[in-house]
Each structure stands twice: as structure tokens, then as C-alpha cells.
Design a protein that fits this description.
The chain is α+β, with helices and mostly antiparallel strands and about 90 residues long. The protein is built from 3 helices and 3 strands, in the order E-E-H-E-H-H. It has a 3-stranded antiparallel sheet with strand order 2-1-3.
């Protein structure tokens, strides 16, 4: 069994951002399963990234559905995928 880490999962669909969450998992699949188990997965396509310990937000942001404002509160430089593409 692998080591569990914290993951940032962002959910979106054709209609835009659905929400995000910070959950534990061994990999992105188990992190997405954990979000589903906690009933905080808003559905849609998911992108995820491991969170380094030094960037892990405070406990109040973990294991719950996050809004865009919550994500900005966690990481002030956060940007949507479209914003990242536009900057490139």
C-alpha cells in the first residue's frame, strides 16, 4: 500500500467551475473516491494535483467543498485552466 498524501481536486464541466476540494489519497483516483465518499464531489471532469506540505492550507479548508473564493483564500495566485492558457 502506498503513502496517502493531500490532493487538490478541481471539478468543472462545459458550464464552468463546479467546485474544488482538498482530500487525502494515495493517488488522484483514490483522492477522487474519498471526495465522493465524503459527499463533497460536485461532479464533472476532475483535475488534481498533489499538495506539498509547505503549501497545505489550514484545516478549515480540508475535506469540504470549496468555492472559487475559498481557493483564492488558500492560494492567492490561483488561476483557472483558461487563465493559465491565456498567460502562456
Amino acid at each position: 500500500m502506498g503513502h496517502e498524501r493531500w490532493w487538490y481536486l478541481s471539478y468543472a464541466g462545459d458550464d464552468g467551475f463546479h467546485g474544488a476540494c482538498i482530500v487525502r489519497g494515495q493517488e488522484i483516483v483514490t483522492a477522487a473516491q474519498e471526495a465522493h465518499r465524503l459527499r463533497i464531489s460536485p461532479g464533472g471532469q476532475v483535475l488534481g494535483s498533489e499538495i506539498p506540505d509547505e503549501e497545505l492550507p489550514e484545516e478549515s479548508f480540508r475535506e469540504r467543498l470549496l468555492t472559487e473564493a475559498d481557493v483564492k483564500a488558500c492560494w492567492s495566485d490561483a488561476a483557472s485552466l483558461a487563465e493559465h492558457v491565456a498567460r502562456s
